[in-house]
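HUMAN:
Just now I want nothing more than another pair of eyes on a protein record. I would be glad if you read both lines and explained how they fit together. I have put the entry right below:
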Amino acid sequence: MFHTSQIIDYLTKTNNYYSRFQLPNIERHLSSFISMSTPGNATLTLLGKFFSSFKEELTTRIADDEQNWFPYCLELSNKLNKQQDNQGIEELQLCAISKEEDRIEALLCDLKNILIKHLSGDYNENLCYAVIFAIGSLEKDIKQHNRIRFRILTPMMIAMEQLCK
């Protein structure tokens, strides 16, 4: 079983990777793709705006993780460690958590689908593939991140909150 701090450390590192490498990589490829394609292409303009709103939403979540969610998780874990030796957490954290579709995942999927299904006009296919690949890579990473976030960390926090009552 992983300790809360190990999970938070992993999620923090993945958030940093998204901010420092994956988002700038997509932005760089998308910017080149848009600038080297037919000027005035409405779909590309929409893609640029869509990516900007996605980036803002992801960076807002990352900031909230750093400022609120992760500190809360660590504080709760430390509080519980001081109260008892975590008996019962293993059983409680196995509860299934139903989660609605994550908005970040949905936005990435939409962005990729717009590129794949609705792109028209003259454009550089290699740059298009580079953007699709970069988005797909981030999408895969975020799915894994969310799996840990929603299936491991969230149930742990629910269990700890119940034990602290």
